[in-house]
Design brief:
This protein has 419 residues and is α+β, with helices and mostly antiparallel strands. It contains 13 helices and 12 strands. α2 packs across α8.
């Protein structure tokens, strides 16, 4: 009788204990798997989100987060000089301004099933507020069109505008509709004249949260909405490097030409957010994964120890009839591996289902981009999950294996007969 068959016979003889162990490991393994997905999920999702636009270098005035610091002065001249560099393929200016919906008659048709954006609270914006993105796109779009046409198509009369799905659904907008906006950009607080736009399409913007109202127009129309945009101060320059040069070479070339500007690649942003903004989730995942793994170790260790103590007489009898010590000790190890392996396999679909549910809850938080995911599957997470469970199985079997290894055969059989 080999060790694996001995372990299998022991397991099937005690179905209740086996089911308890497998279910316990499945619960522990599911939570462990989710913590592994969380540890790098935001980083992987954020890197994918940055790469969707097709721009791999960003130019800002300072090292402050985008749209939180000062704007780039003389941005048009800087755009031309950067575009002339041999390492650069495309440069796009980006201006983001605050605006409010002035066409109140249409906006009053508020769908009660939609979230109320007028709710008060820190970080909440009114239902009439929109973020206006001004840019002249070249090549790949900064957003994904889902209906209608992009800004490249001229519209008679009013300037073109692209709106996101939230705004289109809330205001019943569609290509061909008009939307009147009023800028909220004057430092004096005076009311600015309203500007009427023609909706050319509906799009998904990559960094929108679940309740955002975002619109996009041409760079020249930004100054019509906000006079401060005429000062030629862009919030951000998006740069796409030439494939043969790469992002690092483009960053070095831009920095050499404009040393006063802050130039970062997508990978630089990912590393920064990983160290600072996303470090909290990584720390939480490490702590919870450690605690979860420890409880899984305790569960299997207790079940195996109890099982071995209940079968001391049987184990001594097997040793007396010629079963070697290594086979008996190996049987305990195989028993642990079988239970942890079965529970670990069951943990994967449970963990994936749990991660989808938790991800939906976290993504519903205010100001979290709707396309940003907290739990992202990676092959490395699956491998690490298996390695950690295997280590827990071996560690949990260590003490029961020692009991079996040092078990005195004669005295144990005598005690069993007397009892």
């Amino acid at each position: 009788m080999n060790a694996l068959r001995l372990a299998w016979l022991t397991i099937v003889r005690q179905p209740a204990r086996t089911c308890l162990g497998v279910l316990g490991v499945a619960a522990v393994g599911a939570l462990l798997f989710d913590m592994l997905l969380l540890s790098r999920g935001l980083v992987v999702s954020f890197r994918d989100l940055l790469g969707r636009s097709g721009f791999d270098v960003r130019v800002l005035a300072t090292d402050a987060p985008p749209f939180a610091g000062p704007r780039i002065p003389d941005s048009t001249a800087i755009e031309r000089t950067i575009a002339a560099l041999p390492e650069i393929e495309t440069v796009v200016q980006l201006m983001v301004r605050d605006a409010e919906i002035a066409s109140d008659a249409r906006d009053d048709r508020h769908d009660e099933n939609q979230p109320d954006l007028e709710a008060s609270g820190p970080g909440r914006r009114g239902r009439h507020h929109v973020d206006f993105i001004g840019t002249d796109q070249q090549g790949r779009n900064l957003w994904t069109m889902v209906e209608g046409h992009d800004l490249t198509r001229d519209t008679p009369g009013a300037p073109p505008l692209v709106v996101n799905r939230n705004l289109a659904r809330r205001l019943a907008l569609h290509p061909g509709s008009t939307l009147t906006l009023r800028g909220r950009c004057a430092s004096s607080g005076d009311a600015l004249p309203a500007v009427t736009f023609t909706i050319t399409g509906v799009a998904d913007f990559p960094f929108d949260d679940a309740a955002a109202g975002t619109v996009a127009g041409r760079l020249a129309d930004t100054s019509r909405l906000c006079p401060d945009a005429a000062d030629d101060r862009a919030d951000l320059l998006l740069v796409r490097s030439r494939p043969e040069a790469g992002a690092d070479a483009a960053r070095s070339a831009i920095h050499a030409r404009h040393p006063g500007l802050h130039v970062v690649t997508n990978e630089d942003l990912v590393q920064r957010f990983s160290r600072v903004e996303f470090s909290y989730f990584r720390q939480i995942s490490v702590v919870l994964a450690t605690v979860t793994l420890f409880f899984g170790f305790l569960l299997i260790a207790v079940l195996l120890t109890v099982s071995v103590n209940q079968r001391l007489g049987e184990i001594a009898a097997l040793r007396a009839v010629g079963l070697s010590r290594s086979r008996v000790v190996g049987g305990v190890l195989c028993e642990s591996v079988l239970m942890v392996g079965a529970g670990g396999i069951l943990a994967l679909p449970l963990g994936l289902a749990l991660s989808i549910w938790l991800d939906g809850i976290l993504r519903a938080l205010p100001e979290i981009p709707a396309d940003l995911h907290f739990f992202v599957f990676e092959p490395r997470a699956l491998v690490l999950h298996g390695v950690l469970l295997a280590a827990a199985a071996v560690a949990a079997a260590a003490y029961p294996m020692r009991i079996v290894a040092v078990l005195p055969i004669a005295s144990t059989l005598r005690r069993e007969v007397v009892s």
